[in-house]
Write a structure and sequence with these properties.
- The protein has 14 helices and six strands.
- The chain has 375 residues and is mainly alpha-helical.
- The protein folds into three domains: 64 residues, Dna Ligase, domain 1; 96 residues, no CATH class; 145 residues, no CATH class.
- It has a two-stranded antiparallel sheet with strand order 1-2. Strands 3-4 form a two-stranded antiparallel sheet.
- It is elongated and about 105 Å long.
- It starts with 11 loop residues before the first helix and ends with a helix.
């Protein structure tokens, strides 16, 4: 068969094959070059990120590492403080070296330090600066008492704190910044917008002139972390985080023992499902604005949306700042059939499914509260 050839004696098909091979070789060469360049560039970038931000810097930066911070959190904190170049590189470098045992607290770090030096300091807990002031908020504390505690420990007085934390412009800024806060807190029925959102814990501040915004942010961030931790439960719940926080505050005020928290949470959800009023005494005390030791028949008539003896459903907002155990209990309530519970002064809680049994318990132990109050 006759085949057409080129001047070089090659067939047209062979010439096309040669061209294709040349294109493939050039393409591969380009890809290899690009890959090598990317690898070299990546290595140079990572290598640069591990070096000091400024070797000649004499600046000392106060950096706070909160309790429970992971490598990602610490990397972000250090990057925001401009003492490292890249928080993500820090995170993966720590993971690569299997570094552990970072200590929470306040540190004086410098942009002149490389990442290995910073890691050593964070593990040893050295260079920690003593706090100028600190305060502790116990679980179940009312907003008013929290503000009083803040004022006694820090540089701001009660009225200054109350004014700032009630300022609508400031509250809207917080709502934009934190997912845990929504416009629900601006409901006119709510006494204090941030009631329940100032997480109970111990807080230390190096700056003796720390602003109200800084102090509040630390407390709200703790609540935000809890919401993120239980994000799956919140998403699956029929209730909003605000409502769950409100229920957790009731659990906090009712339960004395850890094991009772999920049981009481289960009772509250059972009553809500049955369309029953919650009828819990701490909401009456909150409605009255008084820390009552026991609730009288007259107290139960208090006209307030927080009075769960008068209104069905969940109150407009939290009645205190719940701790992690109470929040966990609400996120994972015990699956029980109880509709009633009665707390004795000694801490024992008695649960019942029927109202008649509950009434018997009330009559049997009511005198204990009278005697406890007289003591």
């Amino acid at each position: 068969m006759f085949r057409r050839t080129t001047k070089e004696g090659l067939t047209e098909k062979e010439k096309q094959a040669r061209i294709v091979r040349k294109i493939i070789l050039i393409t591969l060469a380009v890809l290899v070059t690009l890959a090598a360049a990317a690898a070299i560039g990546g290595w140079l970038y990572i290598s640069s990120s591990l070096k000091p931000v400024d070797e000649d810097s004499e600046e000392q930066v106060s950096v706070e590492i909160p309790i429970g911070s992971n490598a990602s959190d610490i990397g972000s904190i250090l990057e925001d403080a401009d003492v490292i170049k890249n928080g993500t590189v820090f995170q993966y470098y720590v993971r690569y070296k299997n570094e552990q045992g970072f200590q929470a607290g306040m540190y004086e770090l410098s942009p002149s330090m490389n990442i290995d030096s910073i890691i050593d300091q964070l593990k040893e807990g050295t260079m920690m600066k003593e706090a100028s002031f600190s305060f502790t908020v116990p679980e179940g504390t009312w907003y008013e008492d929290i503000v009083q505690t803040m004022a006694e420990a820090g540089p701001h007085d009660v009225e200054e704190i109350k004014t700032k934390l009630a300022d609508e412009e400031y509250l809207n800024q917080l709502i934009e910044e934190y997912d845990a806060l929504t416009e629900t807190v601006l409901n006119e029925e709510i006494r204090y917008p941030l009631e329940g959102y100032l997480f109970p814990a111990t807080y230390e501040f190096v700056d003796e002139n720390a602003s109200i915004e800084e102090i509040a942010a630390r407390m709200i961030e703790q609540t935000e972390e809890i919401m993120v931790e239980f994000s799956e439960q919140v998403e699956e719940s029929d209730y909003t985080f605000h409502e769950l926080l409100t229920l957790a505050s009731i659990v906090e005020r009712e339960a004395r023992q850890k094991e009772d928290r999920p049981k009481i949470a289960g009772v509250l959800f059972n009553r809500l499902e049955e369309g029953m009023r919650l009828e819990v005494d701490p909401t009456v005390s909150y409605a009255m604005g008084e820390h009552n030791y026991m609730t009288s028949s007259e107290d139960l008539q208090t006209d307030s949306p927080f009075n769960t003896y008068q209104h069905t459903g969940i109150p407009p907002g939290p009645i205190a700042s719940p701790g992690r155990s109470s929040l966990k209990a609400v996120m994972n309530p015990e699956d029980n059939n109880y509709l009633f519970f009665y707390a004795r002064p000694g801490g024992e809680v008695i649960y019942n499914e029927k109202y008649e049994d509950h009434r018997e318990v009330q009559e049997q132990y009511r005198q204990e509260w009278v005697e406890a109050r007289e003591e």
